[in-house]
Structures are given as structure tokens and as C-alpha cells.
Amino acid sequence: MDKRTRAFQNSKKKGKLPLSIEQLKKSIKDQLHDEADLIFKKINVQNKNILVFYISYLIDKKRLDENLFTPLIYGDKDWTVEKLLAGLPLGESKEHQTVEDVCTKLISGSIGIYIESENKIVSYSILNNQQRPIEKPERESIVIGPQAAFSESIETNLNLVRSSVRSNDLVAEKFTIGSRLPTEVRLLYLKSLANDDDVQTMRQRLTDLKVDDIEDGSVLAQYVEDSSISVFPQFYLTERVDRFSYGISKGKVCVLADGSPEGIVAPTTFFGFFESTEDVYFRWNVATFFRMLRFIAMFISFILTPIYVAGVTFHYEVIPTNLLMTLGESRSKVPFPPVMEVLFLELIIELLREAGARLPTKVGQTIGIVGGIVLGQAAVEAGLTSNVLIIVIAMSALASFTAPSYLMGTAIRVIRYPLIIIAGLFGIIGVTFGLCLLIIHLLRMTSLGRPYFLPVYPFVYQDLDNALFRLPFGVSNKRSIAYRLKDDTRYKEKKSAKQKDIDDFGGYNEH
Amino acid sequence: MNINVAIKPGLRIRAFYLFFIIANIQTGTGIMGVSSYIYKEAKQDAWLSILIAGVFVHIIIFIMFIILNKYENTDIFGIQTDLFGKWISRILGTVFIIYLFASLLTVLINYIQVVQVFLFPLLSPWLLTILLLLIVSYSVLGGLRVAVGVSFIFFLLSIWLVLFLYKPITLMDLGHFKPLLEASPKELLLGAKATSYSFLGLEILFFIYPFIDNKKRAQLPTQLGIAMTTSLILLVTVTSIGFFGGERLEQTIWPVLILYKSIEYAVVERFDIIVVSQWMMVITPIMILLVWMITYGMKRLYSFSQKKTLYIVLFLLLIGGGTIKEQFTIQLIIDYVAKVGFWIAFIYPLVLFPLVLIKKKIEKKKEGYN
């Protein structure tokens, strides 16, 4: 047994109350490994020694002075534990029997008060929480609709969610995950709506999770996901408060972790990742158009470059003569096979993206210009790539950024590479092969035990709206049926009156 | 072996998928060459032969449902055990499985040959076999629900090919159908028999039936699936006869693919290449469903683990797909499968039908005595 553990165990033995002031001081110091900012303040009121102790950078000093020292000293009472608990103008109080207990509170921003020879220590939480203000979402920006993003503090996040889901139905179960560095995790759902099985599955996964610490909400999502092999995200991670509350109001099971600006929404379908909350704020027909656009974009993003490779490498006969001539002309200077050419350019685009994401914003813009204009033009002039390919690559890169979920966009970009390589090996047969495998993979996946490819397979035609397209609110009055929520009707369908003929309508309001 | 099978609710599938399963498993390899087969027998009245065959298959499906509905929740193996006892039913079941494997092999080698003719004359059949088997094994490992999902989605993803037949349809010469109704009844029936290879696959009903959730509504989608197949074969045959005319059609091995060759757009010059590659989505569900049937059958007959059967089947397919190359051999195997399939898929249910009825009547009488 080394020195430190022995010291720790000794301190444990010494930790039994009541103690003298000096003994307590030593015991706390031992426990907190001589923390330099640990402050002890001994005061004497009516011949009673009272010790106040705290870590100075964790607490709100103004409240300490106003709400603790002032009443404690000037109140001039005969202080006891009960009076401390009742008579101080501070909210969150706790009694503790042992020194260890108090120390765990101290490091999370509490002050301890001990009256000599009493057998309890009182603690008050006056945490000075350093947090950034609520900002606009950076990664998932939309044009219209609420513009609040989660921050790193779970209290703020819960506050935001509670204020947008105003219902006493909202349950926020608390879990503590991490054996070495515990993190507070909250499981949120609507009691009258969410499917009990889903809630139970998520609860089970959270309680079964035995790790030493979780770094972030996205890490937590990876721990509790269904399949860790797949490149596709199975839970929707969002920093948008409205997206999160939208999930809750649709009966989904949502998770927040302390210290993370990412909320987890589960279960999610593959098509859900192409759904933006903006679709709800837009008019239904416009929203449908944009959702379709995103699906097409996704398809273009992973199919266009492989098709180019297959076509130019093996199947010239498919390409129309005019286009073939242009292609041949621009490719005549390029010394590599099309696969190399495509991989080279894709790599440049990916490097630009990665560099742009890492660099400060101002330098990032320069990188964009350098990449877009200089490299593209220069690469063609140097005979490294063809003109046509630049357009193809730019289009597929652009398309991959339209996915509202950043994780899904990344997944699509990653699966493009194996497709390009297999297209270079087997031509168009390889592309179909890749697509087949991809679809089968998506069919096999689950999210929180629910099929990932809902509502297409298993086919639920009632759920097609809101997944593939949107209908007017008057028509789509149902929640997802496949998820078997407790209540799948959002509101009673308006009983349309008798079918009106052309001139039965009221006409304009003319005054 | 238990006659009736208990299937967990999580493994069951809804009845309407039967439409896609049936339409998918029947349409694929056969349809590529069926028109020239029928034409050889019934000449320009081939369309009538197809209608006769279609009606016949509808009746068979009807009979199959009567047989299956006599039992609580069973498949072909349960019925055979009930009728013939343990040992004979095992032999019959094994014959069934060997036949399924043979038809699986024809799907594979036929597609490999199509790819070699249209796309890559020098591509090694081993490589292509490995690609296809990867797809098959990955989805069969996911179980029946994934297999059904694949057939559902791939059907939706490849049905658009039919729309592009409009081009050859506009180029048809209706004179090729004259003189009308020239074929003798015998020729018509022979023509109907020639379609048998394209209608094969309906025996999946005997396997998949216990897995169906709402059995009362199973008949309609199945019959519609048959109607879908019939109309597709009809469409393809009529178009090929009208487009090619008699002599050219008889010399063509895959008339359908040649039909697509006539399509030309400003963006795509050779449409048939896209069709051949897209055809992978047409044949993989067939292979997946057949492999699933084999693995499930082995499990029912010999309690053999499905995974082990899968690997053995894949290994045999790899050897078959890699080594069988000559057009002549392939045609021979296909003809053979078509002949055996005719008896197993179409005649066998007709044999089972009276036997099941008699057996059930005897059982009822016995109960009455007791």
C-alpha cells in the first residue's frame, strides 16, 4: 500500500464527527489533497466556534458575503445545525454525517459550515457557474424558426427544454454515468405519449452502461447505439433546442448529458436525418420540395462520382458522343486512370473541408478561395484532372452538405470512397453491387430496436408523410403509427362539411 | 418433426408483402428469354398461351391455399410429414431442396453470362459470383424479415425499367401478329408449358406461409403477384413479337435485353448496359429468397443450423458459378430445372390436394367415432 492511499484511509478513520476545528481542517485538507484555494474561515459567535470552508474559485463570493457571513455574524444567535438549516437566506442546503460527503459537495461548488462539537456539517450550494450565454446554432443553422442552441451546462439546457415543452407530463429521469468522473445524464420524454418499451430500452441501456467517464453527449450516443460497426448514426444528435423539443413532442425518447451541447433523440429513422425543423416552419408544399431536394442531393452525392468513374473507365458506349468528345478532350492531358483522378480530387475537397473546419474563421475563408479557385483551375491546367470532373466533384461535395444532420453528411461522404474504388474495379456492376449492399445494410439496422428504414420497410403508408414528404397540417393529424405511441392522434380531424360547389364559397370579405 | 410451426410475432411478416415476394421471385431470369421459348411453340399466338398459363397458375395458387388452410400453421414439410410419415417426407423434402438449389444455380449462372455478353466479356465468373454471394449472405444472415425487405425495396427500385419499354412498343409492327389464332390447341398448351420456367418460384408460398401474420388476407396479394408476373410476361412477349417478328425472335437468347438496346437518349446512349447492371437488383432477391428457403428447409428437415447450411450453399454456388461457363451447359441446366420445376411447382400441389382432403376427412371421422 503506498503512502497516498494510506493517508487517504487514515483520513477516512479520522472523518468521524464530532471533531475539533483543527482536526476537521486537517481532515478536509487531506481529502482534497491540499487544494491551494481551499479557504477556511473561523468565526466565533456567542462563544461558539464556527468553521466556514469552501473552494474560492467555485463559489459566488457576493452571495457568500451577503447571504452567509452577514446573517451568521450579525445575526448573533446561538447557532445550531437546525438554525443553520432554517435561518440562512440560501436555498439548497444539506446535512452531512461524514467529511467525505462534504468534500464531494465542496468540489461541486458548495460551502461547508461546521459548528464545533456538533455531529453534522451543513452545506449550501452557491455554485458560481461559468457558462457561455445561449447562442445561435452553429452546426445546424436554419433560416426561419427559433434560434436557440444548447450550451454545455445541463441546467441551462433543461431550462431551455422545459420552457419550450411546457407540460407537467415531461419526465426528466436522472442518471449518473461514469465511475471515475461521474456525469449527470437526463432522460426526457412525455409520459402520456412515449412508448414505454422505448423508454425502458433507453433506461436499461443507460443503467447498464459501465464506463469510467463519458466525454460528451455524442460519446454517450455511441455507447448506447444499436450497432457500433455501421458508419451511419442511429440517434439524431442535435444542438437545436427546437429540434430536441420537436422530438419530445413527437413521443421520442431524448437524452441530455452534462457538459455537452448535444441532445440525443431516439429512435430515429434513416429518413429522419434528412428532416429539418425548418420543414415544419415552411409551408407544406415548399417543405416537400426541399425534402425531396435533399434526398436527391444525397443520392447524387454518393452516386455521381462512382458513375463517372464507371462510365469513363469501362462504359464509354453509354456516354453520348458529344459529351464523350468533350470528356476525351479534357481528359487527354490527364495521365492517370479515372479512379486515381477522382480519388485525388475527392481528397483535395476533403482536405479543404477538414482544414476549413479546423482553422479560425478568418483564415478559413482564405482557404476556401485558395481551394476553390486556385487549386481547381491550376489542377486542370497542370493536367492533373479534367474540367468535367471538377464540376462532378464539386456537385457531389455540395450535395453532401445539404443533409441537416452533420453526422449523416459525414457518413455519406465516407461511403462514397468504397463506392468509387469498386466502380473503378467493376464498373457499373460494381456501383449496383455497392448500392445493393448499402440498402441491405440499412434494412438490417435498427435504432433503439426499431427498424431503421421505417416507414419504407416495414411499409407503413400512414407514416410516409412527415418522413418522405409533408402534407398540410389539416390533413396530417397523426403521429408516427409505426412507433406505437400511447396516443397517435395529434388532434381530431376536422369533419369537412358538405362538398361545396364552385359558387357556394363565401367570396371575398368586402369591407 | 412438428407438423405445425410456432413463429414468434417479431418474425412474422404482413400478408401484403406476398405480392412483392411472388412477383419478384418469378420475374427475373425467366423473363429475359421467355418470349422466344413461347414463340417457338405457339408462334404469333404466344400471348394466348401466356394467358392460359396465367389462369392455370392462379388455380394452382388457389389450391395451395386450400391445402395450407386445412392446417393450423404449417409449411410443405409439415404437410408431407402428416401425409406420408417421417421418412418419405424427408426424401421428398430433400428432393425439393435439391431442386431449389438447382434453380438457384440457374439464376446465378444465367446472370453471369448476361453480364459477360453485355458488359465484360473477360470478367472472371469467380469474381462476379463472389460479389453476388456477398450480397446474398449478408441479407440472409439478417433473417427472413431482411430477405422480404430486400425483395420489397428492390422490386420498387427496379420496376421503373418496365416504363422504358414504351420506346420499343411504339416501334412495334402489328403485322407480326397476323394471322390471328392460327395455333392448334396442342401448340397453345405447349406454349403455355414453355412459360413454366418463368412462373417457377410460387412454391415459396409453401415455405413462407407459417410466417404470415394475417393469413386471412394472404390470398389476394398472392394472386395479384401472379397477375403481375403474367402481365409482365405478356407485355414482354407481345412487345418482342411485335418488335422483332418471328425469325429474329427465334434466334435471340435474351429478347428483353435487346429491346432495351433500341432505347437511346441525349444523356444515355446505350440503355441496355444500365438495364443489365440494374438487373442485379432483380435477381438478388430471387437468390436471397431461394437461399433462405433452402436454409429454412434444412432446419425443418434435419434440424441443421441455418448458418451452416448457408455457408455450405454459398460454397457450392461459388463452385457452380465459377466453373459453369458454356452457353450450352447453362441452357441444358435451365431446361432441366424447367422440366423438374413444372412437376414440382405445378403438378405436385394437384397431387397433394386430394390426399390432404381424404386425410382430413378420415381424421374427422375418427374424431366422430371417439
From TrEMBL, chain A:
Membrane topology per the record? Multi-pass membrane protein
Give the transmembrane ranges: 292-314, 386-407, 419-443
Keywords in alphabetical order? Membrane, Transmembrane, Transmembrane helix
Where in or outside the cell is it found?
Cell membrane; Membrane
Note down the stretches annotated as region Disordered: 492-511
- Stated name of the protein: Spore germination protein
Which domain of life, per UniProt? Bacteria
GO annotation terms (biological process): spore germination
Query: Which range is the signal sequence, renumbered to this chain?
Result: none
> GO cellular component annotations, sorted alphabetically?
plasma membrane
What family is this? Belongs to the GerABKA family.
Q: Which Pfam families match?
A: GerA
Chief place of localization: membrane
TrEMBL record, chain B:
Per its UniProt record, what Gene3D superfamilies does this chain match?
Amino acid/polyamine transporter I
Q: Where is it located?
A: Membrane
Q: Which UniProt keywords apply?
A: Germination, Membrane, Transmembrane, Transmembrane helix, Transport
List the signal peptide residues: none
- Keyword Transport annotated: yes
* Membrane topology type: Multi-pass membrane protein
For this entry, list what GO says about its biological process.
Answer: spore germination
State the InterPro entries in the record: Spore_GerAB
Q: Which GO terms describe its cellular component?
A: membrane
- Looking at the UniProt entry, the stretches that span the membrane are 16-40, 46-68, 88-112, 118-141, 148-169, 189-212, 224-245, 279-298, 310-334, 340-358
Q: Does the keyword Transmembrane helix apply?
A: yes
Q: Which family does it belong to?
A: Belongs to the amino acid-polyamine-organocation (APC) superfamily. Spore germination protein (SGP) (TC 2.A.3.9) family.
Q: What is this protein called?
A: GerAB/ArcD/ProY family transporter
Q: Which organism is it from?
A: Aquibacillus halophilus
Q: Lineage in the entry?
A: Bacteria, Bacillati, Bacillota, Bacilli, Bacillales
